[in-house]
Design a protein that fits this description.
The protein has 250 residues and is of the alpha/beta class. It has two domains: 3-109, no CATH class; 120-248, Rossmann fold (3-Layer(aba) Sandwich), CATH 3.40.50. Helix content is 39%, strand content 18%. It has eleven helices and eleven strands. The chain has helices spanning 3-14, 20-27, 44-48, 61-71, 85-94, 131-143, 159-163, 166-171, 185-190, 213-220, 235-248, and strands at residues 32-34, 39-41, 54-55, 78-81, 98-101, 106-109, 120-125, 147-151, 174-179, 197-201, 227-229. The strands form three sheets. The chain has a five-stranded parallel β-sheet. Strand 1 (32-34) and strand 2 form a beta hairpin. Helix 1 (3-14) packs antiparallel against helix 2 and helix 6 runs parallel beside helix 11 (235-248). The longest helix is centred in the C-terminal third of the chain and has 14 residues, at 235-248. It is elongated and about 65 Å long.
Length: 250
């Protein structure tokens, strides 16, 4: 539930276009709505600036549909992450404005907002195989009102690809560096800029990378200052953090 929703109800009550009893009825489900299998946080947008995000993986299509239907009562925009095409088709049946971003494995319901903040969030991926996680981060940051630019397949195996785009790197306000294998990309990027770098390890790599653990440990142990690390394959968390940082800068 966003602030505008509350303001509209209070305005209607104040102007006698809505009775006090009717206003109470609309607000009685605060601060969350109980569905039995889920508790929808209807106040998330008021506290954090964006509605609760649906993590679709592990939920049935019917459960996601029910959550979407209830959330649409309170929010003009809804984001569902780690969604399969089957889940999207189910959501589309109850929300005609739903859009599926296959690379990001995400569902967006409602119109993506215009850019609100002046700084740019730059997403850099080490390889093409890291793109699903990078796209998850990019979509998240853009839905939160940020200008997003992308620089893909610019890993350290061909460092000239990264350095050739130095102007784009230097002009960014926040950088998200996504890498699997040995996970060295964020350290290289962090050594070049005076901006915050959010490192995202991915599970991309051969057997001894242990599904992303090698990249995670490399990033956690980087000697470069100014790097923060999120969990393996957590593009959403990186995108949200980048958006939070960029918002504070104006």
């Amino acid at each position: 539930m966003d602030k505008k929703f509350i303001e509209e109800i209070l305005t209607l009550v104040h102007s006698n276009d809505l009775s006090v009893e009717e206003g109470v009825e609309k607000l009685k489900k605060l601060p969350y709505e109980e569905l039995g299998f889920a508790k929808i946080d209807t106040h998330r947008a008021m506290r954090n600036g964006f509605p609760e995000v649906i993590f679709c993986q592990g939920k049935t299509v019917t459960q996601v549909q029910e959550i979407v239907l209830r959330m649409k009562e309170y929010n003009s925009i809804i984001l569902g992450m780690r969604a399969s095409e089957e889940t999207y088709n189910g959501v589309k049946a109850v929300a005609s404005d739903a859009e599926y971003f296959s690379y990001a494995r995400a569902i967006l319901i409602g119109k993506k907002p215009k850019v609100k903040y002046s700084g740019t969030v730059l997403i850099i991926s080490a390889g093409t195989a890291d793109m699903p996680v990078a796209e998850e981060a990019a979509l998240t940051a853009s839905v939160l009102g940020n200008k997003v630019e992308k620089l893909y397949d610019a890993g350290i195996a061909g460092l000239h690809r990264l350095l050739y785009n130095s102007e784009k790197i230097y002009s960014a306000n926040v950088i998200i560096a996504v890498a699997g294998m040995e996970g060295a990309l964020p350290g290289i990027v962090g050594s070049l800029v005076d901006k915050p770098v959010i490192a995202v390890p991915t599970s991309v790599g051969y057997g001894s990378n242990f599904q992303g653990l090698s990249a995670l440990l490399t990033m956690l142990n980087s000697c470069v200052s100014g790097i923060a690390v999120v969990n393996i394959d957590n593009g959403f968390g990186a995108g949200f953090m980048a958006a939070s940082i960029n918002r504070l800068s104006g």
